[in-house]
Design goal:
Layout: H1 2-54, H2 56-174, E1 186-190, E2 193-194, E3 200-203, E4 216-221, E5 232-239, E6 244-248, E7 264-270, H3 275-280, H4 298-301
Antiparallel strand pairs: 1-7, 2-3, 3-6, 4-5, 4-7, 5-6
Length: about 300
């Protein structure tokens, strides 16, 4: 061991002496550089002093700006202190909210525990829904097939209806109807004359138009500016070949607003009414209509609003 130490120590000493010499050289170099830097600094300071002496006003402005900046910094520091106080208060409040947060977390855990069965049910329902959707797909395919059959049947029905209507028109044109006005037949006529009392009017229709004595008609005014839109009723009492006299049936239409000469009207053949029906018309009656009233069509007793 002593031999090893004797061999190593001289090397360590030489190393240290080398480092010391290097440090001395570095110190000397630094001193030289310091001298150079000091000279340069002196020259720079001299230049700065010359600049300062030449720009005194700029220095004054800079000092004023510095003062203002310092005041702003002081204000900001005071505001920063306030904000720090507010932060402390907020931290204190947040510490108070910790129990509430823990309570909320515990409640959330309870809710999640309750949701687990619901999630399981939802999965089961989803599986059932998938099965129902598959079943629905099969039903829709069947429905499409049935719809295609239905479309074919509808097309065939339309063809049959077209043929039927053509045949119906042919046979109807070949049928000869008796020369009189049937129930619910309508005609547009113009009043040729009227009694001043409103008891009746003369109309330009007679036997040749299918009019017969005793026929009753529902009358509607067709002019937009008619004095009344309520329906009236007429009964043919005198019938000639091309004209007739029809008297007013009392109890219908607006009172004292009679038909006038040259007034355009629409007449519709209606059922006959007895005198008892006329006297009771317009009164409240919850009983069912009589046999004579059943002959009157619903349009015959309706009034235009």
């Amino acid at each position: 061991m002593a031999g090893i130490a004797f061999a190593i120590v001289p090397g360590i000493v030489a190393e240290k002496e080398k480092r010391s010499a290097d440090r001395k050289d570095s110190i000397e170099n630094l001193k030289k550089e310091m001298v150079v830097d000091e000279n340069a600094s002196k020259l720079a300071l001299a230049a700065v002093f010359r600049e300062i002496s030449g720009h005194r006003e700029a220095i004054d402005d800079a000092q004023g700006t510095f003062k203002e900046t310092k005041e702003k910094v002081d204000f900001l520091e005071s505001e920063l202190a306030k904000v720090a106080e507010e932060l402390k208060e907020a931290e204190a409040e947040s510490e108070e909210l910790v129990p509430s947060r823990l309570d909320a977390q515990s409640k959330l855990a309870e809710v999640n525990a309750r949701l687990e069965p619901l999630k399981a049910n939802a999965n089961g329902i989803s599986a059932k829904r998938q099965g129902l959707e598959e079943e629905l797909g099969g039903v829709q395919k069947d429905n499409q097939a049935l719809q295609a059959k239905l479309d074919k049947l509808i097309f065939a029905r339309e063809q049959i209806l077209v043929d039927f209507r053509e045949r119906e028109k042919f046979y109807r044109d070949s049928i000869k109807t008796p020369p009189w006005i049937y129930y619910a037949d309508k005609m547009n006529v113009t009043v040729t004359n009227a009694r001043p009392s409103g008891a009746g009017v003369f109309l330009p229709v007679g036997y040749q138009d299918g009019m017969k004595k005793g026929m009753e008609f529902l009358v509607r005014r067709t002019a937009p500016d008619a004095p009344s839109r309520r329906s009236r009723r007429l009964r043919a009492t005198l019938v000639q070949s091309n004209y007739c006299f029809a008297e007013e049936i009392p109890g219908f239409g607006e009172a004292n607003v009679f038909l006038q000469v040259d007034e355009k009207i629409e007449i519709e053949r209606s059922g006959d009414s007895t005198q008892e029906d006329v006297n009771t018309f317009g009164k409240e009656d919850d009983s069912s209509p009589t046999s004579s009233e059943s002959n009157v069509s619903s349009d015959a007793i309706a009034t235009d609003s």
